[in-house]
Amino acid sequence: MTISRRSFIKGGAVFGGGLAIGFNLSGCAQTEYPHFSATDLQPNAYLQVSPSGQVILQLHKSEMGQGVYTGMATMAAEELNMDPSLITVQQAEFHPDFRDPEFYVMITGGSSSIKYSYTILREAAATVAAMLKTAAAQHLSIAESALNLKDGKVVYAGGKVDFATLLPIARGLATPTEVTLKSPQDFQYIGRHRQRLDALGKVTGKSEFGIDVQYPGAMTAVLLRCPHFGGKVSSFDASNALKKSGVKSVFEVDGAVAVLAETYWQARQAAGVVNVVWDKGPLAGVSSESLRVERHGMLTSEAGKNVEEKGEASAATGELFEAVYDVPYLAHATMEPMNAVAVATKEGIEIWTGNQSPDIALSEIADATGFKREQIRIHNHMLGGGFGRRIMPDYLVEAARIAQLSGKPVRLVWSREDDMRGDFYRPNATVAMSAMIDQSAVTSLQAKIVAPSILGGFVQFVTNTLLPQWLPNGLHKKIGGMASGSDPAAAEGIAHSDYEFPYMRTDYVEQKTTIPLGYWRSVGHSQNGFFIESFIDELAHQTTQDPVAFRLAHMAKDSRRRQVLELAAAKANWGNPPQGQFQGVAVHESFSTVVAQVVNVSIADGKIKVHKVVCAVECGMAINPDIVVAQMEGGIVFALTAALKGEITIEDGAVQQSNFHDYEVLRINETPEIEVYRVDSANPPTGVGEPSVPPLAPALANAVFAATGQRLRKLPLRLA
User: Are 379 and 93 in contact (CB under 8 A)?
Assistant: First the structure.
């Protein structure tokens, strides 16, 4: 593969005596790279070669367990012909060139990291390789065709020369107008089973997460927030708290109360004796049940917006069959709670944390503190779980404001209770699925979705980040409001599916709410996969057809889903479960990846026991097959937790759950056997962090129906 000069940018020549190559992801105007130095690290390119010959990869995506640390290094290493373990990976700070082409901001989400970096990083590495080979040819006075790269050196028949020796020449070369990428058949590292590069650091404790950061002299902050959404402090009495050992100050900050102490335990103990009177705010009296009842009413009272219509309505003949499904709010419940270290001076603010979108955070911190974006630095670290939660910048804004108001370095740490009750939740939703059945033929498939919009709030963040800072913030909110009514995330996975029926229609009704919503692993697919794959199973039953055969009969012959579904069914020995067990199936496409799952269950003492999950996946080329398997397994466990246990309930505008005793996660003894099978593909890679989540709940619900005859149309699944 040959790549033209137009696809890349040479990154400003020399940084600290090294060579740096970068690419513009965003399509925005190129900004000048900041200078690189050993004392003031401001990464400005994807790849650097230091004066010592060290190859440094600037990791522009957040590593939160999904494997981008290893995947990115592997892709670069392939074109440099060097073992990935020889590449030094550094977490990049914000730069416009790192903005994502789908979301328009620097962000890690949407299972897009590998997909969008696959060509970009390989081009960067191939450019470095080409320049080093040209330099070696000049240095050795031999033809480039006689040279190859191997593990940080240029090798030839007579010997080898290291990168450091070649840098003085390489830096003086013009950037090549074309670079040639390896053909997949020549890959040495991509597609091979290799240990994760971050594994050793994580198991030995050497890896640094946001919560590990220690800053000299930093006070630990605990923030008391109103338990009611949108509420704020009316008054508080901190006299007892100030008597506690180690407590330095207690003060109001943006409608909350901050407690500063020498240690976290001291701050937490003092926070417990602050007497606060809260103004409950606009959502007092609102409950998750009242919102559910409202949605059910909107199914008939609101027409909604048409998202998709295929075929002619006249083709929908026969008898009407319909079902209504519900899903609850869900929390992210990351193992590492929200945290940040912030230092504020007259010149600016510096923050150490783990975050999925430092770009958005810079704008929100700037708005809250009065500093300009360029006066703020965010040093990103590994994340102890993200799942979309750490896209939101609220905890970084809090840390910045506490540091600004106190005049002290601050280490803000959320408790599990803070995290559970201050989340940006997966929205609850209701869907009415309907079909017309003419004898044994399904002539239509329709869905009416009633749910809040996630997109509106996110668009406000994006516009606040990308629009000029002098524009009024109200404009950002207006644009966000315009986007919310046609939120594609609300209908994704139902609209534009691969199923084929004579008439198909999807409508969306937005439920207005100010309850904080956010992106949750697999976003709209997480609930829409449950809705459509449960209903497809019901249609198979209504027409007395095998669930696998029914699905295949309504897919195009060249559908990717067909191959994946057939593989899962074959590996699960579909239709022949062990004695006493029952099977359910689902297949779903999300983030350009297709996943099918077969779940084996049994019922004992009125409880659901999951014995086995067989998973088949088509995700294009696997950069590291072991990571693909791990992400499928992790997504299945994550989804199984939600399907069996997950539910955030709201009363009087406040979340009722507080910790893992009342928002349970799957335990080891509850985890089933999981088998993962991958469809081999030479196509470019697609996402794997999220796609194994959507099929699990419907496959499980369908298995429960096979076992009990009960159609469970509400999550979490509970037997009557």
Answer: yes
Contact assessment for residue 344 and residue 369, using Cβ atoms and an 8 Å cutoff: yes
Residues 691, 663, single domain; the answer is yes
For the chain, what is the largest distance between any 2 Cα atoms, rounded to a whole number of angstroms?
Answer: 82
- Residue 5 reports pLDDT greater than 60: no
What pLDDT, on the 0 to 100 scale, is given for residue 253? 98
Q: Are 622 and 678 in contact (CB under 8 A)?
A: yes
Examine the domain organization and report whether 563 and 668 are in the same domain.
yes
Q: What is residue 124's predicted lDDT score, i.e. its pLDDT?
A: 86
Answer yes or no: do 198 and 82 share one domain: yes
Q: pLDDT by residue (tens digit) across 676-704? A: 999 999 899 999 999 999 999 999 999 99
| Residue 23: per-residue pLDDT | 43
- Domain endpoint, select from 413, 435, 462: 413
Which CATH number covers residue 237?
Answer: 3.30.365.10
Q: What end-to-end distance do the CA atoms of the chain give, in Å?
A: 59
Tokens of 176: 């090549």
Beta bridge partners of 90: 58
**Tens-digit pLDDT profile for residues 499-535:** 999 999 999 999 999 999 999 999 999 999 999 999 9
DSSP character at residue 241: G
Which of 141, 174, 204 terminates a domain? The answer is 204
Report d(CA 78, CA 11) in Å as an integer. Answer: 21
Shared domain for 224 and 363, answered yes or no, is yes
The β-bridge partners of 232 are 279
* Mean pLDDT of the region 212-238: 97
Mean pLDDT of 121-140: 93
Q: Establish if 611 belongs to a structural domain.
A: yes
CA pair distance 114, 51, nearest whole angstrom = 29
How would residue 292 be classed by pLDDT, with cut points 50, 70 and 90? very high
Structure confidence by residue, pLDDT tens digits, 625-638: 999 999 999 999 99
Could you tell me which residues are beta bridge partners of residue 56? Answer: 48, 88
Q: How confident is the model at residue 476 (pLDDT cuts 50, 70, 90)?
A: low
Residue-wise DSSP of 41-67: ----SSEEE-TTS-EEEEE-S--SSSS
Q: What share of the chain is helix, strand, coil (3-state, %, to 5)?
A: 35, 25, 40
At 29-87, the pLDDT tens digits run 344 444 353 322 222 368 888 888 889 999 999 999 999 999 999 999 999 999 999 99
469 neighbors 410 (Cβ within 8 angstroms):
no
37 shares a domain with 15: yes
Residues 243 and 142 both lie in one domain:
no
For range 177-189, the mean pLDDT: 93
Number of domains in the chain: 3
Residues 195, 233 within the same domain: no
Q: In what order do the strands lie in the sheet with 55-59?
A: 9-15, 18-22, 47-49, 55-59, 88-91
Tokens standing for 321? Answer: 């069959």
Distances (CA, A) of 281 to 234, 289, 291, 529: 11, 19, 17, 35
Q: Is residue 718 part of a domain?
A: no
- ω before 716 within 30° of 0 (cis)? yes
- At 517 the pLDDT is 96
Q: Which domain holds residue 272?
A: 210-281+338-413
d(CA 268, CA 220): 9
- 650 falls within a domain: yes
- Who's near 452: CB < 8 A, 6+ residues apart? 427, 428, 429, 510, 511, 512, 513, 515, 517
Token representation of residue 687 = 């996402």
The answer to whether the beta carbons of residues 403 and 410 sit under 8 Å apart is yes
Over residues 618-623, mean pLDDT: 97
Residue 420 lies in a domain: no
Kindly state whether residues 16 and 165 are assigned to the same domain.
Answer: yes
